[in-house]
Amino acid sequence: MRRHSLALRGLTIAVSFTALSAQAASLQEAASALGVSNLKSLEFSGSGHWYQFGQAPTPGAAWPQFDVSSYVAKLNFEAPSAQVSLARIQTIEPGRQRPTPTEQKLNWFVSGDKGWNVAPPQNSPPGTAPVATAQPATVEERTAEIWATPQGFIKAALANNAKSEASGVGVEVSFNAGAHRYVGQINANNQVEWVRTWIDSPVLGDTLVETKYKDYKDFGGVPFPAELTRVEGGYPVLHLNIASVKPNPGVDIAVPENVASFKPTPTVNAEKLAEGVYWLTGGTHHSVAIEQKDHVVLVEAPLNEDRSLALIAKLAEIAPNKPVKYVVNSHVHFDHSGGLRTFVDAGATVVTHKLDKPYYEKAWAAPHTLRPDRLSQSKKAAKFETYDDKHVLSDGVRSIEIHRIAGNGHSDELALVYLPTEKILVEADAYTPTAKEAPPPKTVNPYSVNLYENIQKLKLDVTQIAGLHGPRIVTLADLRTAIGQPTLAQ
Questions:
Q1: Per-residue confidence at 128, pLDDT binned at 50, 70, 90?
Q2: CA 255, CA 132: separation in Å to the nearest integer?
Q3: Whole-angstrom Cα distance, residue 81 to residue 9?
Q4: CA distance between the termini of the chain
Q5: Which residues contact 418 (CB under 8 A, 6 or more apart)?
Q6: N or C: which end of the chain has fewer CB within 10 A?
Q7: CA–centroid distance for 287 within its chain
Q8: From the candidate CATH numbers 3.40.50, 2.100.10, 2.50.20, 2.60.40, the one assigned to the domain spanning 3-259
């Protein structure tokens, strides 16, 4: 018996041609209408909008929009692998102050179980050669985007013994590919109207991703929608007007050696800033641990559970026998809140702005079946301490002040942490220090100007700034230089 195989996220599924005859006629007809059997790869391009998932400027709002002048997706259905290249520039919302938009050219890749980006290193001078950077957390979503295309969905449905049911004037097709479920609608014209699947988010849990298609056209012999819209977490993440489609282009994506050998094991380094105060680095996002008499206060639990477990292990080394009683969250953006659930499970109280509490309570009630974390298993209730403009954590010896950074365009509830005795300020995203030898930025970031204005308004005496991004501890003078005001007195 002749057989062929289709790889779905590293899982190779053998499908017999005789088994395909058991599929619903409409699925087979859609495969014929969309030219699936002769399609091994696909390229489509267009323009429109891209939206930054998990980065809403206020909890519960839509993801911020970018204008996309060029979007090119190259898909290899057999590997499976994909490359997406796009040029984007942020759309400034009315009434919100953001950095001056500059065009960003991005290249995103996935092949099998490896995901990576190719770009010049962050903050590198113009002309710096691009490098590949492993992005293991992107594999699930980028792979899902391959099988959510109309032709990709039909291929995956045929390969996974899909179930077809009448739905209105069309047919609803559903199947499981490994841990992931896909559901799609085929209309009376044998066109895929929408595809739904679910991927994991450390904050939102099992997250619905729905891609809708409309206005099918013939692109050089390939039927393909002229418009697509993708919604993730309740809001759009992509809207494209398709300009061209190419069947069977050469899509041979090799995994870079450094990506192939990359081991996503979190590393946490501890730098002592003062007695009982540690800057915890080792990745893209940092934290600060502050000891009080019988417990630890952790500022920031970023990224995901793996990072939080590594933080917990490091805290046991530097502050043995002191549990984490509080975890202070700077703002709701998912890269800064993705590890909170692990500390909730460990018994910590989340200290966050009052706008964040209802958002977290709703989000954390969602199922986490795709990637169960500790909280989904223990089902512990989250404890919160919230504030409006200011909150103080004191054990009678050391005071920790939390202040909302008023008027910051990055996020409406962005907060800083200040240690008055040690004169240390902790902040995220308002100011990202650069390497010591790097030149000052060419344009002033209004987030950093706003941070400095808040420091002045609050009369904070700052000698060290521990950014939750960036390569080094800096001073207030460094912040003044970054905003183009190096001679200002505090």
A1: confident
A2: 9
A3: 9
A4: 80
A5: 400, 401, 402, 403, 424, 425, 426, 458, 460, 462
A6: N
A7: 18
A8: 2.50.20
Strands 383-387 and 349-353: parallel
State whether the Cα torsion 361-366-371-373 is positive or negative.
positive
Q: What is the CA radius of gyration of the chain?
A: 25
What does the mean pLDDT of the chain come to? 94
Q: Which residues contact 91 (CB under 8 A, 6 or more apart)?
A: 49, 64, 65, 66, 67, 101
Per-residue pLDDT of 308-349, as tens digits, reads: 999 999 999 999 999 999 999 999 999 999 999 999 999 999
Two structure tokens written together for 299: 């500022």
**CA nearest neighbour of 237 among 204, 284, 259, 264:** 204
Beta-carbon contacts of 426 under 8 Å, excluding residues fewer than 6 positions away, are: 288, 299, 300, 416, 417, 418, 465, 466, 467, 468
Q: CATH for 269-482?
A: 3.60.15.10
One-letter amino acid of 428: A
| Nearest one of 8, 360, 27 to 156, comparing CA atoms | 8
CA distances to 272, 273, 278, 326, 421 from 322, rounded to whole Å, are 17, 19, 14, 11, 21
Q: Where in the chain is the domain with CATH 2.50.20?
A: 3-259
Angular region, 354: left φ>0, alpha ψ -120 to 50, beta rest: alpha
* Alpha-carbon span 118 to 105, nearest angstrom: 10
CB 125 within 8 A of CB 437: no
Nearest residue to 398 via CA among 420, 427, 424, 425: 420
pTM, rounded to two decimals: 0.93
Query: What stretches of 52-167 adopt beta strand conformation (E)?
Result: 65-76, 81-90, 104-111, 114-119, 131-134, 163-167
CATH 3.60.15.10 placement within the chain: 269-482
Residue recorded with tokens 């046991």: 316
To the nearest 10 degrees (0 to 180), the angle between helices 150-159 and 25-33 is 140
Per-residue pLDDT band at 3 (split at 50, 70, 90): very low
Largest CA distance in the chain: 82
